[in-house]
């Protein structure tokens, strides 16, 4: 059975080979982030800048999952049900144009935490009617370079509206910097999901501490 507590959304790190500075190691960056106190990790490896061959995805996912287990941090897979099942991930996250949320719920909702991207009021209200989702990822809060197909930015005010309309915890995502965390937390969001803020950080321990010390809604 899955275990979901919204506190895991506080310092949620999303990363794949495409997000790593040249010459650095995905495994080392994730391990440093785990040592620093991230509360969840999502393996999202996609796009033209990914450096992993298809045959390398499963071994990498297994290695990263083992690291997460060592630090007792839930491991998520982005939009790949088959891979999530193979590595017995703690969770899976899908977007609006990914695998249908109803299919994800029917296959793994009893075993895995299910996250779903919702970027506007219509999507939130529709998702509120679907049983089996555990949290929403909402954004982009600000413009982001990490996703080529990102929706228009919604800003902190837009996030606050979605938090008020949601029946589930929301983790904010998209272009977030350390200086934004307090304002994001004040909307009632449960946490922040970041890519480059950690992957490109010169001091991962300080960055993660700042995330965990924000006044998140409990």
Verbal overview:
The chain has 218 residues and is an alpha/beta fold. The chain has helices at residues 26-36, 54-70, 81-86, 101-108, 121-128, 155-165, 181-185, 196-199, 204-213; strands at 11-15, 40-43, 75-78, 91-94, 113-117, 135-138, 170-173, 191-194. It has one domain (6-213): TIM Barrel, CATH 3.20.20.70. The longest helix is centred in the first third of the chain and has 17 residues, at 54-70. The mean pLDDT is 95.
Give a short synopsis of this structure.
This protein is an alpha/beta fold and 218 residues long.
What shape does the CA trace take?
Answer: globular
Strand arrangement, major sheet: 1-2-3-4-5-6-7-8
Major sheet attributes: 8 strands, parallel, barrel
Pairing-aware structural class of the strands and helices? alpha/beta
CATH topology: TIM Barrel
Beta-strand fraction estimate: 15-25%
CATH architecture, by name, is Alpha-Beta Barrel
Number of strands: 8
Question: Helicity level, as a percent range?
Answer: 25-40%
Query: Considering the protein shown, what is the CATH homologous superfamily?
Result: Aldolase class I
Please indicate the count of domains.
1
* Helical stretch tally: 9
């Amino acid at each position: 059975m899955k275990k979901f507590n919204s506190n895991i959304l506080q310092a949620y790190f999303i990363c794949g080979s495409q997000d790593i500075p040249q010459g650095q190691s995905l495994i080392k960056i994730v391990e440093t982030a785990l040592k620093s106190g991230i509360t969840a990790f999502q393996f999202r490896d996609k796009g033209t800048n990914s450096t992993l061959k298809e045959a390398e995805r499963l071994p990498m996912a297994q290695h990263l999952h083992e690291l997460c287990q060592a630090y007792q941090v839930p491991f998520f897979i982005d939009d790949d049900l088959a891979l999530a099942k193979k590595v017995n991930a703690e969770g899976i996250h899908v977007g609006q144009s990914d695998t249908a949320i109803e299919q994800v719920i029917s296959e793994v909702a009893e075993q895995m935490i299910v996250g779903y991207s919702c970027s506007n009021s219509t999507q939130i209200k529709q998702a509120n009617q679907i049983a089996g989702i555990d949290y929403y990822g909402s954004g982009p809060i600000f413009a982001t370079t990490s996703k080529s197909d990102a929706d228009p930015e919604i800003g902190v005010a837009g996030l606050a509206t979605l938090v008020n309309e949601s029946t589930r915890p929301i983790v904010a995502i998209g272009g977030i910097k350390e200086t934004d965390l307090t304002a994001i937390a004040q909307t009632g969001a449960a946490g922040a999901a970041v890519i480059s803020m950690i992957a490109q950080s010169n001091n991962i321990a300080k960055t993660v501490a700042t995330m965990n010390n924000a006044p998140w809604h409990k």
